[in-house]
């Protein structure tokens, strides 16, 4: 009888021969996986948006007649500050005790946005009056609408009032009333 010997456990020699094939197979699979990943990454797409942006326009203008408009800017030349919109000197000339005189003024918002207004009125430095007349503004809107809309301009009054007991120390004296309107842009 012949006996055959069946090897059930691979010999060490066979195992050593299989290792390079297994390593090669794993390397091929790894490279194939990277190739598959690179192929799937090729499917990309983008989307873009753009939008124009612009700043609002903002310009406050003043007028003595509601027709001719100016910036009303203060200018200083050789240390002397002047304002380019002056109420005619005849409006408040020859003041007497107990008088009130009014002058109409206009303001316009020539802007693309609304404007909130604040105001100051008073006598500039250098007044020679012993007691300045009272200077007030009345009827001025708090907010002006943008250009082209109702309420983008406004008429108001500048009033000077002398007291009934205005002393004779004011005879021949003078001063300059300055109205400052400040606009703040608002949406």
CATH fold-level label of the largest domain: Immunoglobulin-like
Largest sheet: 4 strands, antiparallel
Q: What's the CATH architecture of the largest domain?
A: Sandwich
Q: H/E series, N to C?
A: HEEEEEEEEE
Distance between the termini: 110 Å
Outline type: rod-shaped
As a whole number of angstroms, the C-alpha radius of gyration is: 44 Å
Overall number of domains: 2
Order of neighbouring strands in the sheet with most strands:
1-4-8-6
Oligomer: single chain
Average pLDDT: 86
Number of helices: 1
What percent strand? 25-35%
Structural class: alpha+beta
The CATH class of the largest domain, by name, is: Mainly Beta
Task: Assign a percent range to the helix content.
Answer: 10-25%
- Count of DSSP E strands? 9
Low-confidence stretches: none
Description:
The protein is of the alpha+beta class and 187 residues long. The chain folds into two domains: 10-45; 60-186, Immunoglobulin-like (Sandwich). The protein has one helix and nine strands; from the N terminus they run H-E-E-E-E-E-E-E-E-E. It has one helix at 12-41; strands at 60-63, 74-77, 80-83, 100-109, 114-123, 134-138, 143-144, 153-161, 177-186. The strands form three sheets. A four-stranded antiparallel β-sheet has the order 1-4-8-6, with no helix packed on it. The model has no long low-confidence stretch (mean pLDDT 86).
């Amino acid at each position: 009888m012949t006996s055959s010997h069946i090897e059930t456990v691979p010999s060490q020699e066979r195992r050593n021969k299989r290792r390079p094939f297994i390593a090669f197979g794993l390397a091929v699979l790894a490279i194939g996986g990277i190739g598959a990943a690179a192929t799937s990454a090729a499917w990309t797409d983008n989307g873009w948006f753009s939008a124009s942006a612009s700043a609002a326009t903002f310009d406050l203008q003043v007028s003595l007649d509601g027709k001719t408009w100016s910036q009303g800017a203060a200018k200083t030349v050789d240390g002397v500050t002047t304002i380019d919109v002056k109420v005619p000197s005849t409006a408040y000339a020859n003041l007497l005790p107990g008088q009130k005189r009014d002058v109409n003024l206009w303001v316009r918002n020539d802007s693309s946005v609304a404007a909130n207004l604040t105001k100051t009125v008073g006598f500039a430095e250098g007044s020679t009056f012993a007691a300045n007349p009272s200077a007030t503004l009345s009827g001025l809107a708090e907010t002006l609408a943008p250009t082209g809309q109702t309420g983008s301009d406004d008429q108001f009054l500048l009033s000077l009032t002398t007291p009934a007991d205005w002393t004779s120390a004011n005879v021949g004296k003078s001063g300059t009333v300055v109205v400052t309107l400040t606009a703040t842009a608002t949406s």
